[in-house]
Amino acid sequence: MEHNLEHTISLLTRTPAALDALLRDLPETWTFRNEGEKSWSAFDVVGHLIHGERTDWMPRARMVLQSGETQTFESFDRWGPVRESEGKSLGQLLDEFARLRAENLGELRALNLRPEDLERRGRHPALGVVTLSELLATWAAHDLTHLHQISRVMAHQYREAVGPWSAYLGVLQCAGHSSP
Amino acid sequence: MEHNLEHTISLLTRTPAALDALLRDLPETWTFRNEGEKSWSAFDVVGHLIHGERTDWMPRARMVLQSGETQTFESFDRWGPVRESEGKSLGQLLDEFARLRAENLGELRALNLRPEDLERRGRHPALGVVTLSELLATWAAHDLTHLHQISRVMAHQYREAVGPWSAYLGVLQCAGHSSP
Predict the structure, then answer these.
(1) What ipTM does the predicted assembly reach?
(2) CB–CB of B69/B121 below 8 Å?
(3) Mind telling me how many Å the CA of A119 is from chain B's nearest CA?
(4) CA B33: distance to chain centroid?
(5) Per the count of CB atoms within 10 A, which of A18, A66, B28, B42 is most buried?
């Protein structure tokens, strides 16, 4: 499937409402527990998504359009969101994610990108040359990788409770490919 | 984390709205494509969840309460939902899932299960003796295993579009533990 900007925007538009419907006011045993050690809870993941809205996707898209390959993207600070989320409630984070996403999609639509714009190139600090098309497709796939992670982290909390059914539940066999 | 019936109901209550927010009116390239061969699309997964509401969770719970270990659960027909979904739109399936889930949770709440009821035992055709507690915890974890699957199936559609970022997206490394 080729990248289709309208399809990307359709998905990006829905993620905040989907996470809101799943997570808001859910007991904290689901949303604040992680998979052990330094792994992330659902709360931490929403903080990470907010951080991406602020520092990753649209700032990088602007850089591609303004500077092309001459300027390298800033590295993404994976632990930034954990510090920024301290003292906030999950409801506050969900509101903030929805607001930032709506602002960013408003800005993206206003760019009126043409097919030739999507082929413009930027420079990633580790991956090298990438296109604007790849960056925007990754924004959508990144939502899905974290929905996949949240499902897994939450299911982990019931690993013992399901008894022998654990053998049948695919999510409990998933070793966690999502980083971190 | 021990099984907590209120926590289970909290999660079961939210799944239909979360899937609705994610999937309704999304372009069919996201919702009707699968991972190849006989794998399932997001549309197929919603059909499977409907089938579970009709034939699996509450019928089995009733059987545990009425017959205990003396009667074995009926096997779950994994291909039933694919036939039942034919000719329907995804919107119709989402509506049907929400309606059936609400009815089933109404029935579950009306049972006013006490802790000792949750320890009652039934017989699974392959797993042997299981408790009502395990059955109800599995109902919730089963929602999560399919949310995990839907995220993966949808991300798969952008496997090429994300270019070199595929190495960083955990969901694209997931081989698919969910069955089928």
Answers:
(1) 0.95
(2) yes
(3) 12
(4) 19
(5) B42
* Cross-chain CB nearest to B154 (options A3, A23, A144): A144
Q: Is A70 on the interface with B (CB under 8 A)?
A: no
Find the DSSP H helices in chain B: 5-23, 28-31, 42-55, 57-67, 80-85, 90-110, 115-118, 132-156
Distance CA A171, CA A163 (A): 14
Asked whether the whole model's pTM tops 0.90, one would answer yes
- Structure tokens given for B92: 């119709």
**B15, B170, B172 member nearest A149 (Cβ):** B170
Which of A18, A141, A169 comes nearest B22 by C-beta? A18
State the pLDDT confidence band at B55, using cuts at 50, 70 and 90: very high
Neighbours of B1 (CB within 10 A): 14
Mean pLDDT score across all residues of chain A? 93
B62-84 pLDDT, tens digit each: 999 999 999 999 887 766 666 67
**Do residues B33 and B161 touch, judged by C-beta distance below 8 A?**
no
Given its phi and psi angles, is residue A68 left (phi above 0), alpha (psi -120 to 50 degrees) or beta? left
In the stretch 138-177 of chain B, residues with CB closer than 8 A to chain A read 138, 140-142, 144-145, 147-149, 151-152, 154-155, 157-158, 160-165, 167-174, 176-177
